[in-house]
Amino acid sequence: MQKVRTTLLRYWAAIMIGALTWCTVLLLPQDAGGLSTSYLQAMAFDSSAQLSNFYSDPSDAVTIRVQGVPYTYNTSASQSTPLPALKPLTTKPAAPTGLKVVSTGSNRVELSWQANSEADLKGYRVAYKPAGGTYQSFFTTSTKCTITGLQNGIKYTLKVKAQNTSDEYSSYSSHVYATPKSTPPSTPSGLKVTSIGNGRIDVAWNPNKGSDLKQYRLAYKPEGGSYKSVFTSGTSYSLTGLTNGKKYTLKVKAINEAGEESNYCSFVYATPTGSSPAPSKANVKVETLAAGTKYATPLYVISSGQPGPVVMVVGGVHGNEEAGYSAARKITEYKINRGTLIVIPEANKLAIEANRRAAPGESDLNRAFPQSSSQNPKNVLSRAIYSAIKDYKVDWLIDLHEGYDYYKNSSTDSVGQTLIYYPANSTKTTAQAIVDDLNKGISSSLKKFSLLRYPVKGSLARAAGEYLGVHTMIFETCDNPSLSIRVNYHTQAVNKLLSSLNMR
User: Fold this and answer.
1) 55/74 Cα distance (integer angstroms)
2) pLDDT value, residue 234
3) Which of 117, 437, 448, 456 has a C-alpha 20 to 30 A away from that of 26?
4) Which domains does the chain have, with CATH numbers?
5) Helical (H) or strand (E) element with 430
6) What's the sign of the alpha-carbon dihedral 212, 216, 217, 223?
């Protein structure tokens, strides 16, 4: 009789829970023994049935399924105690399958595995250890991961297990093994001399395709001398300060993030000369902007003697942006094939001397230009520069600047490594070509140049673009790399602009 009372109570609990929750209730087979279907139906629909009539041993429990989820229900209760809460029964997830090594690289291993199908899956825990070491682990919700910071040349054991929302774990999957290792970069190709000048050799080469490329080492030496090296993340470089008439040997190699170096490429040779292609004095005129004032600064007019566009390059608007005015100084030595090149290498000499953004006691020069068509420039220096643009009928203007960080670093508001153009007169096509040319030699996505629109109001590029109809852009490097790398970025940008106009 006791067994019948207990079993009836289990059925009663299951039916009542189903009625109250409007859910499908299924009594598991172990709770069905000894009761007839007719008796259960009578109990289920007899509103006078009382739970107190079926109290059983405190250890008795009924197991039911509500919408497919198993629950246990303890049948022990007193008449004065509310019905106990349902407690879900959970099932541990299955061990993940299909764990495999997708790839290895320098200090890293990439894994993937098949997804588990459990509805209550929370994620996975990946464990790994070096040979002779102890396991480390981490949690992920994905079915693939890349483990970094590993030691090259060491064999690692890796495994994964599943975790459900009740924080129950499966057993671990089968182990896999991997040994991270680095691969030296391939040897650069296509090294060539692009131009020579007064104590100068310009070279370029093809970019390497390795994803972990860090930089290149360009080595050079004069005949009978020893090698010197410079480093750059670009694929072109202008060597200056060389001895005219001396034959130089040049070669380049690639270096990855692990510090491994490729072999040097094949040598090239060049002899700098003082006669070509540096501009002759007959083709260069030097004028003075803001003459007779404390702001006086030189303006170089380089004429080809052939018809063509007029391009203005400006450096040193901000005195603490050294790469811009250093590059502009180099550009004063350019020789061009057509048109006119105007260079203001040190636009804000007082700020440069003070190594400050603005000259002492002065406001920001790059906010002193007109902000409407009816406005005039705000001070002597901005008026002199703005007048020169109009007087020389400038077609293109590039203003060289630097930012304190990379634009792609979202934690700052710096615009380092950008080209910001005023979107008019089809300027975008040329601006995009400049950015693409620079990015060919930069492997890090963070350090690549971005193309932006609309220079800030009050700037030289914005005013000349918006109110004078000039094709304008601001070129910004990040001041984190070495000065020589930044200067080369500036000269490369100007070179690309001039070559796109068939001027150089």
Assistant:
1) 11
2) 82
3) 117
4) 2-88 (no CATH), 100-178 (2.60.40.10), 192-270 (2.60.40.10), 281-500 (3.40.630.10)
5) helix 427-439
6) positive
